[in-house]
Amino acid sequence: xxxxxxxxxxxxxxxxxxxxxxxxxxxxxxxxxxxxxxxxxxxxxxxxxxxxxxxxxxxxxxxxxxxxxxxxxxxxxxxxxxxxxxxxxxxxxxxxxxxxxxxxxxxxxxxxxxxxxxxxxxxxxxxxxxxxxxxxxxxxxxxxxxxxxxxxxxxxxxxxxxxxxxxxxxxxxxxxx
Length: 177
Hints:
- This protein has a domain at 62-174: Immunoglobulin-like, CATH 2.60.40.
- Helix content is 23%, strand content 28%.
- A hairpin with a 4-residue loop joins strand 7 (154-161) and strand 8 (166-169).
- It is elongated, with a radius of gyration of 32 Å.
- It has helices at residues 2-20, 23-44; strands at residues 62-64, 69-73, 76-85, 114-120, 125-129, 141-146, 154-161, 166-169, 173-174.
């Protein structure tokens, strides 16, 4: 009985040894199967289905433009601090195109694709713009504070491309000259 059992195991063991051969052969077979799968997937897929990465754009270079502007709203006096983005022309027009398919800015259902937010140096948001129509509008950035409030020493801006969820953050800019 034992001899019959050994006979029944031998052919299976021989088959197992022949099919496994050497580790190098197994690795080669695995590599060829993966390469063939990748080639087939590349040939079958439509090239238009691949996502296109957003263009690499520079961070904005924020600069204080000069003397503060005093104005009154209601019975309260304010000071407006103006800034410009020196490299505004590095940004394409489509970044500031109306984007009705994206969430609105308040009641503005045609707000731009890219919003601009102003932050003080520690990250507190001071003001924002959601309806710029062209890159040159980056030269009209400002925030205002009541006349009796001391402005932050430094601020920065973030441009948020809402279509690609990409943020472009400026360096810190002084609020005085």
